[in-house]
Amino acid sequence: MINVFAQAPQGIQTAPHDIRMLAAGHQVAVREVDFRPVRDKEGLMLAFLSGLGLTQTFGRNWDALYDVLTDPEQRPARLALVLRDYERFRQRGRKLLPELEEVLLGAQREAQARGRALWLLAEEPDSDPRHW
Q1: Which of 7, 8, 46, 76 has an alpha carbon within 20 to 30 A of 115's alpha carbon?
Q2: 28 near 16, Cβ under 8 Å?
C-alpha cells in the first residue's frame, strides 16, 4: 500500500488504516471530521467546528470554512483532515456535496500554492464487529 503522506495531497483520497502512525512519521497533524450525524448544512458546519476545534465565533458558512482551512495562523503546515463516514454522507448529502467539495479542494489547492499540505482522507467506519 502506498503511503499517502509520501506524496503531495491529491484530491479526496482513501484514508489508510494506520493513519495516525503514518502521519506521526511524516510530521502531519491529524484532525477528524465526523459526517455520521450530518443531515444538513448546519450539521455539516457543526461537524467541522467540532473536528477542527473551532470557537463558537466560526461563521458556519462556506467562506468561513474555506478561511479556517487555509489560515496559516490556525492550521499546521501539514494537515490531514480525516473525513469519517464520507462515502455514506456523499449519498445522503448530495445537495451539500458540490459546495463542500469545492471548498475542500480549493483549500487543498491554496495550501499547495503556499507550500503547505492539506490531505483530505475519506474514512469509513469499520463494519466488522471484531474491530468494535
Answers
A1: 46
A2: no
Q: What's the pLDDT tens digit per position in 17-49?
A: 889 999 999 999 999 999 999 999 999 999 999
Question: Among 100, 126, 106, 114, which Cα is nearest to 33's?
Answer: 100
Q: What is the pTM of this model?
A: 0.91
Give 66's contacts (C-beta < 8 A, 6+ positions apart).
103, 106, 107
User: Where exactly are the structural domains of the chain?
Assistant: 21-126
Q: How far is CA 42 from each of CA 2, 52, 61, 78, rounded to the nearest angstrom? A: 35, 15, 9, 27
The CATH number that domain 21-126 falls under is 3.30.370.10
